[in-house]
Amino acid sequence: MVNCAPAGVAMQKEGLFILYMVLVALAEFVTNFVDPGCGLSLHAIVLVSLLALSALKHSENPISSLLLSLSLAPLIRIISLSLPLAYFPRYAWYLVAGAALLLATLALMRVQGVGFREVGGTFYKPLTQAAVGLTGVPFGAIEYYILRPEPLAAGSFSELILLAIALIVFTGFAEEIVFRGVMQRSATEALGWKAGVLGVNAIFAILHMGWFSALDMIFVFIIGLFFGFLTLKTGSIIGVSLSHGITNVVLFLAMPSVAVP
């Protein structure tokens, strides 16, 4: 007789992944187009359900690690919506939100029993990583002409430097360790590298829905694929983290100051 169990488990993994991708997209849609409070509630429901499902027979559950990693997606939005960031200077917004996300990610990694090397925290081929980091300059310029965001008010020169550092560390590194480090690692192990990279970057793009630009979501998805494949090839998130952070510095700080209207 043909053993259908592996095929059934694979379908279960893919089905749950797609289901939660749709649920995150729905929660984002409600957050941005209906009511932020309702969207926050939906994200919280998604988060709790992912944590509950990942805890069921944790040691025997073949998708426990994947479900636990996916919980970081709704957590990102919950942090951004619930922290009282208006009371902090602008550079501290990214520091506070990014630090909260990093702490949650470190706790998740501890539960999964993985270290920094397993999620790409290695300086393998530093010159290659530096070259990858420089891709953030054209990426930021292109995204600026897609979004045309208002410049982030920084005040003094020291605040501008702090804001740039916060963007590089707490959007670049923090988001890359979440998506290309923890989430992509679990997804590729559970679904295979193609489905894992595509699925994780679909979620990455969905979480940019708040910019109200379909073109930007497509651009972010493509850049995410680039980051994902580089991480798989090099085994490191250092270069893509630097590129991600520089993209945001160029997008929010440099281009609004020098671009021709």
Q: Could you describe the 3D structure shown?
A:
This protein is mainly alpha-helical and 261 residues long. The chain has helices at residues 5-33, 36-55, 64-70, 72-82, 90-112, 126-134, 136-147, 157-191, 193-206, 214-234, 238-258. Helix 5 packs parallel to helix 8, helix 8 (157-191) crosses helix 11 (238-258) and helix 9 (193-206) runs antiparallel to helix 10 (214-234). It has one domain. The protein contains 11 helices and no strands.
Q: Spell out the helices and strands N to C.
A: HHHHHHHHHHH
Give the total of beta strands. 0
Distance between the termini: 69 Å
Strand content: under 5%
Characterize the biggest β-sheet.
none
Helix content: over 70%
Keywords:
mainly alpha, single chain, 261 residues
Outline the fold blueprint.
Blueprint: H1 5-33, H2 36-55, H3 64-70, H4 72-82, H5 90-112, H6 126-134, H7 136-147, H8 157-191, H9 193-206, H10 214-234, H11 238-258
Brief account:
The protein is mainly alpha-helical.
